[in-house]
Design brief:
The chain is α+β, with helices and mostly antiparallel strands. The chain has 1 helix and 10 strands. The N and C termini lie far apart (160 Å).
Length: 228
C-alpha cells in the first residue's frame, strides 16, 4: 500500500512540473510572436544607367515634328524593298507518246544524226539533237544510243533494244515453196536461173549390183540420195 502512495506522489509531481513548463513556454511564445512587431525589410533596386542626362535640354526642332506626315515612309531607317514576284508556274505537262525506237546512228563530220521512228516498220526518219518526236526531245546522240527527255524525265534509248517488238512487213517475203529438183547421175546439172522447176529422176538403171543415186537440187545446195 505504501508503494502505491509513493508512485502516485511521483506521478503527481511529474505532472505538475510538466504543466509549469508548458505555461512558461506559452508565455514566452506569446511575447516573442507578435504580428505587429514583424516589419518587412526594404528592397533595394539596382540603379539602371540612363542614356539621357537628368538635366538634358529639350530638342530645338521639337516644333517641327507636327509639320511632318506621320504616315510617311521616310520616318524610319528601315529600307522598304519591293516584294519579290512569285515564281512562274511550271509549264503544263506534254502528252507523251510511246518511247521512240532507235534504228541507227550516222556521223556527218562533227554532227551526229539518228534514224528514229516507232515500232512500225518503215517509220524511221533522220533526226538531229533538239528535235521532237511524239513529245520526246532528243537531248544528245552517241554511238548506237541517244538520250531523250520528256516532262523532266530522261531516258536512254539503245539501238537493237531487245525489249522492243518491231512489226515486220511480210508482204515483201515470198511464201511460194521451192520444190526440189531430182537429177540422175548421168544427167547434167540444171541452170541456176530455173531452180524451182523439178526434173524427174532418170529411170535408167546402172550396172547390176549398184544402187542408183538421185541428185536433188534444193535451196540449200545439191543433195544426193541413194535408192534402196
Amino acid at each position: 500500500m505504501r508503494r502505491i502512495w509513493i508512485l502516485d506522489l511521483a506521478l503527481l509531481a511529474l505532472l505538475t512540473a510538466t504543466a509549469v513548463r508548458f505555461h512558461n513556454e506559452w508565455i514566452m511564445f506569446v511575447a516573442t510572436h507578435q504580428a505587429g512587431a514583424v516589419e518587412p525589410e526594404r528592397e533595394k533596386f539596382a540603379k539602371l544607367p540612363s542614356g539621357v542626362p537628368a538635366n538634358a535640354p529639350a530638342p530645338a526642332n521639337w516644333t517641327d515634328i507636327p509639320s511632318h506626315n506621320p504616315f510617311s515612309f521616310d520616318r524610319t531607317d528601315i529600307a522598304i524593298l519591293e516584294p519579290k514576284a512569285p515564281p512562274p508556274p511550271p509549264p503544263p505537262k506534254i502528252q507523251l507518246g510511246p518511247k521512240p525506237v532507235l534504228y541507227g546512228t550516222m556521223s556527218i563530220g562533227t554532227e551526229m544524226m539518228a534514224f528514229v521512228g516507232t515500232a512500225k516498220a518503215g517509220s524511221q526518219k533522220p533526226m538531229k539533237a533538239g528535235q521532237v518526236i511524239d513529245g520526246w526531245t532528243i537531248v544528245s546522240i552517241a554511238d548506237k544510243q541517244m538520250l531523250i527527255k520528256g516532262n523532266d524525265v530522261e531516258q536512254t534509248v539503245i539501238m537493237n533494244d531487245p525489249t522492243v517488238e518491231i512489226a515486220r512487213d511480210h508482204s515483201r517475203t515470198s511464201e511460194a515453196p521451192l520444190s526440189p529438183t531430182v537429177v540422175s547421175i548421168g544427167a547434167p546439172v540444171p541452170a541456176a536461173a530455173q531452180p524451182a522447176q523439178p526434173q524427174p529422176a532418170s529411170t535408167t538403171s546402172g550396172q547390176p549390183g549398184q544402187r542408183r543415186v538421185i541428185r536433188q537440187v534444193t535451196p540449200f545446195g545439191i543433195r544426193e540420195v541413194e535408192e534402196p
